[in-house]
Amino acid sequence: MATELADFPEWKCPYCGKLLPSGEYNQTIEEFRVKAEQKLKEQQRKDGEYFEEQKQKLIQKNEAEIENQRKIHNSNTRMIRDELQASYDKQFEDLKKSYDELARQRQNYSDKLLASYEEELYEKDRQLQELQNEQADFKAQTIEEAKAAVQKEIDEKDPIDTHSRDGNDEDYLK
User: Fold this and answer.
1) Among 19-23, 39-43, 56-60, 123-127, whose mean pLDDT is lowest?
2) Given pLDDT bands bounded at 50, 70 and 90, which one contains residue 29?
3) Is residue 10 within a helix (H) or strand (E), and if so which, with residue range?
4) Burial class of residue 47, CB neighbours in 10 A (0-12, 13-18, 19+)
5) pLDDT exceeding 90 applies to what percent of the chain?
6) The pLDDT value given to residue 174
7) Judging by DSSP bridges, how do beta strands 10-12 and 19-21 pair with one another?
8) pLDDT digits (tens, 9 = 90+) for 43-86
9) What residues have CB less than 8 Å from 21, skipping those under 6 apart?
10) Count of CB atoms within 10 A of residue 49's CB?
11) Beta-carbon count within 10 A of 24 CB
12) Element spanning 141, H or E
């Protein structure tokens, strides 16, 4: 057994407490529902506008922050790049100085070594020349000794008086 709204002849208004006939009550309820819907829609529209406004403010704030961070990032990137370039240039200059120093040391060592080899070569040439001179002297002395030995042998084998010879072999052979 369901109770219909029409079954009640009068209704009491929940807001003002006044007794209303059921038709009027239904009309008032309907008006209240329409007003409530309108208020709700208006509140939703205002809330939507407010939230949209807040959203736009947040978007602008975030975009500004992103732009600020981008500037900071670009500045830091330039600074790091400059520091790296300076470091690279310094390291390159240091390596170049080290290379130049090593090249100079190597050249000094090579010059000393070359001078030592030239001195040693000069000494060896001098010793070779002395040996060649001694060899020539020894050869000449050996030839003289061999001639003298041959002459002595000839003189010993030939009893002829070699003093009577005048050095002319033709007379001696006759």
Assistant:
1) 19-23
2) confident
3) strand 10-12
4) exposed
5) 61
6) 44
7) antiparallel
8) 999 999 999 999 999 999 999 999 999 999 999 999 999 999 99
9) 9, 10, 11
10) 10
11) 14
12) helix 22-157
Q: Which two tokens stand for residue 152?
A: 């002595």
Exposed / middle / buried, residue 29 (Cβ in 10 Å: 0-12, 13-18, 19+): middle
The span from the CA of 125 to the CA of 123, in Å, is: 5
Task: Give the number of residues written for the chain.
Answer: 174
Domain chopping of the chain, boundaries: 7-155
In the three-class reduction of DSSP (H, G, I as helix; E, B as strand; rest coil), residue 47 is classed as helix
What is the residue-wise DSSP string for 83-138? HHHHHHHHHHHHHHHHHHHHHHHHHHHHHHHHHHHHHHHHHHHHHHHHHHHHHHHH
How would residue 131 be classed by pLDDT, with cut points 50, 70 and 90?
A: very high
Collapsing DSSP to helix, strand or coil, 19 comes out as strand
CB 40 within 8 A of CB 26: no
